[in-house]
Amino acid sequence: MDIARPDIAQKKRRRRLVLGATAAIVVLAVSLGLSRLRPAAPTVDSTVWIEEVKRGPMLRQVRGIGTLVPEEIRWIAATTDGRVERLVVLPGTPVKADTVLLELTNPEVELAALDALSQQGAAEAALAELKVRLESQRLNQEADLARVQSESRQARLKADTDDVLAKQGLVADLNRKLSAVAAEEMVKREAVEQKRLSIADEAIRAQLAVQQAQVEQRRALARLRRSQLDGLKVRAGLDGMLQQMPVEVGQRVAAGTNLARISQPEHLKAVVRINETQARDVQIGQPATIDTRNGVVPGRVARVDPAVQNGTVTVDVALLGPLPKGARPDLTVDGTIELERLANVLYVGRPAQGQPETTVGLFRLLPGTNEAQRVKVELGRASVSTIEVRSGLAEGDRVILSDTSAWDAHDRIRLR
């Protein structure tokens, strides 16, 4: 028969409890260890852009795209209405100031010019006739004055004679008095005639001035009509190159319509568009270089547009050197403006998402490993390809400058 042994069963239960407790402790320890482990760093392709932090002089520059523009541009506008009859010169042709670019026709202008010329001739003829007539009247007035002066002298002589004879008793005293009165009357008549001649001269000048004004008016009208007639032959008015002629044969144009654009291709400037966030430090007089893709030309900032258009600021750069071959108006160029030279600063290549005067997170390579750790970096003044480091990095550190936004959730990455 079986003998009951309760101690053996108790040992088995105790062993199971110990084994279960041990297993639970092991599971708990493993779980706790796993919870404290950091997630594995993601692996990154080693072709990322890595650059070393340096200390030394840094040249601050801004860059923009622009075009070459003539310093002097003249639009030739129509001076009168007309129809385009003929295009004499085509765009791209060198022209002189008196070169006829195109011809317009307008019968009304031609008729008005002839009518104005006829009115001018009539006014000039009327002026000539008035001069002759007034001169004849003046001569008659002078003749009357001369006659009165002669009679006045005769009266004075007779009065003097009668006065002498009367003293000798040869002429009655009444005759002496009558001769004296006649002489006084002739003196008064002579004064009146002198005054009439003076008034006649003033009247002549006034009438001639009125007629002369009419003649000048007709001449001015004739010059205007003649200039309108001459304006039907549109001339360049400037030595240079014909750039544009936005009209066609047979087209009707109104006065003031732009017919042609003339420029001087040997005198060009660069108009560069700088991003508004980078243009705040651009000042007149700063040195610049213009790359025409056929050569580099030095220049200097001549004007900064105070307005912002489409997120850019327009900067005019005066070219100081000879233009390379192929330089022509509207040619696309790259402009670089030198803002300042920093003597001794800590700098690094400009990160993909690094803006000046901001704090960004950059991955710094750990020495002796293929891992990189994210650090906070305070950036300062920026240039085209470099940016100042104010804090967060030291000279000799190597950082990743490529776009790392895909790993924003990680503080460490591993290079493959």
In short:
Helix content is about 35%, strand content about 35%. It has helices at about 5-35, 105-165, 175-230; strands at about 45, 50, 55-70, 75, 80-85, 95, 100-105, 235, 240-245, 250-255, 260-265, 270-275, 285-290, 295-310, 310-320, 330-350, 360-365, 370-380, 385-390, 400, 410-415.
Account of the protein in words:
The protein has helices spanning 6-36, 107-167, 173-231, and strands at 43-44, 50-52, 54-70, 73-77, 82-87, 94-95, 100-105, 233-235, 240-244, 252-253, 258-263, 268-275, 287-291, 296-309, 312-319, 332-349, 359-365, 371-382, 386-391, 398-400, 412-415. The chain has 416 residues and is of the alpha+beta class. The protein has a 6-stranded antiparallel beta barrel. The longest helix is centred in the first third of the chain and has 61 residues, at 107-167. The mean pLDDT is 84.
Q: Characteristics of this structure?
A:
Elongation Factor Tu (Ef-tu), domain 3; four-stranded antiparallel sheet; 3 helices; six-stranded antiparallel beta barrel; single chain; 34% strand; alpha+beta; Helix Hairpins
The count of strands amounts to: 21
Beginning-to-end CA distance, first to last residue: 74 Å
The CATH topology of the largest domain is: Elongation Factor Tu (Ef-tu), domain 3
Query: Count of helical segments?
Result: 3
Q: Which strands sit side by side, in order, in the main sheet? A: 3-12-15-14-13-16
CATH homologous superfamily classification of the largest domain: Efflux pump adaptor protein, beta barrel domain
- Poorly predicted tracts of residues: none
Mass-distribution shape = rod-shaped
The proportion of residues in beta strands is 25-35%
Report the biggest beta sheet as strand number plus sense, adding barrel if it closes: 6 strands, antiparallel, barrel
Q: Report the structural category.
A: alpha+beta
Number of domains: 3
- For the CA atoms, what is the radius of gyration? 53 Å
* Overall CATH architecture of the largest domain: Beta Barrel
Q: Helical proportion?
A: 25-40%
Listing every helix as H and every strand as E from the N terminus to the C terminus, the arrangement reads HEEEEEEEHHEEEEEEEEEEEEEE
